[in-house]
Amino acid sequence: MIEVKGLTKCFQGHTALNQVTFKVPSGSIVGLLGPNGAGKTSLIRILNQIYLPDEGEVYIDGRNLKKEDAFLMGYLPEERGLYRKMKVKEQLLYLGRLKGLQQKEALQRIAFWLKRLKIEQWENTYVESLSKGMQQKIQFIATVLHQPRLIVLDEPFSGFDPINAEMIKKEILRLHQEGATIILSTHRMESVEELCQYVVLLHQSNKVLEGEVSHIKEQFKENQYLLESKTPIRWEGIPVKVLKEVDIVTGKQYTLSLEEVSTSELLLNVASQVEITRFEERIPSMQEIFMKATLFNEE
Ligand SMILES: Nc1ncnc2c1ncn2[C@@H]1O[C@H](COP(=O)(O)OP(=O)(O)OP(=O)(O)O)[C@@H](O)[C@H]1O
């Protein structure tokens, strides 16, 4: 759906984006990741036509992005911006109308969303007297009210307690199931694990990693295994490197790197000593991949 080619953006001699190219697969949830200052917000602002790039192009459905595409998009910025002196419903109606909704339809959708996010009793309250989390919900509604096909969410969970964060997560998944393409920019890697099928990692203004989460995990695997046993294992004579050993409720957990030994040989050997309660290949977490990919590409 969205394709970005050779995007470059400079601010007073500082290059915030350097020839960044990637694709956002239609109908996916894409994690836009990167350390502080990597260039994510600059990129998001270009996608939302707040900034013009110095070089490069953004394509939507194979053609150049144009002004009217703003109606196809919903953007939840990191720095929230509601009119504090307006009442909730009044404000959502105003923002919905700006995005092209007719009054009647806008009111129906506002009622639907306020109920859905369990804040319908606040519809006639001034925004300034709402809690931070409630204001966040209003801003989330303002982002999705016009049923955008592309939704860009910058740190959508910040300010939410765990219950409300879960509620927003479910709504993101539901919007995805209904066909929206979602770009999620976040520093919370556990959210990336839970929600994203695809990631783009920026570091120091460059794209350093892009692809399906499953492929990236495959690529970063290191032939390591997790083995749990009810009692301690004697490793003498078994060609493995024990990288980590921890006590767990039901016994011991070992992280192993296999040398000159297959998994079945290892299991045969260990099973003759102890009862094995768990054995699996260790798949790196997004947190580990993030750290590795950024450190590897450090200038
Ligand atoms: N309007 C601006 N004027 C000057 N410099 C800017 C401007 N916007 C961004 N920059 C610079 O561009 C670089 C990238 O910033 P950007 O906000 O895009 O990073 P980010 O990845 O969103 O960071 P964070 O995770 O901290 O929000 C930074 O060095 C920042 O100081």
UniProtKB/TrEMBL annotation:
Presence of the UniProt keyword Nucleotide-binding in the record: yes
Pfam families: ABC_tran, DrrA1-3_C
InterPro entries found in the cross-reference section: AAA+_ATPase, ABC_transporter-like_ATP-bd, ABC_transporter-like_CS, ABC_transporter_ATP-binding, DrrA1/2-like_C, P-loop_NTPase
SUPFAM superfamilies: P-loop containing nucleoside triphosphate hydrolases
Membership in a protein family: Belongs to the ABC transporter superfamily.
Domain of life according to the entry: Bacteria
Name this polypeptide is given: ABC transporter ATP-binding protein
Domain ABC transporter: 2-229
Keywords linked to the UniProt accession: ATP-binding, Nodulation, Nucleotide-binding, Transport
Species the sequence originates in: Algivirga pacifica
GO molecular function: ATP binding
Source taxonomy: Bacteria, Pseudomonadati, Bacteroidota, Cytophagia, Cytophagales
Gene3D superfamilies cross-referenced by the UniProt entry: P-loop containing nucleotide triphosphate hydrolases
Keyword Electron transport: no
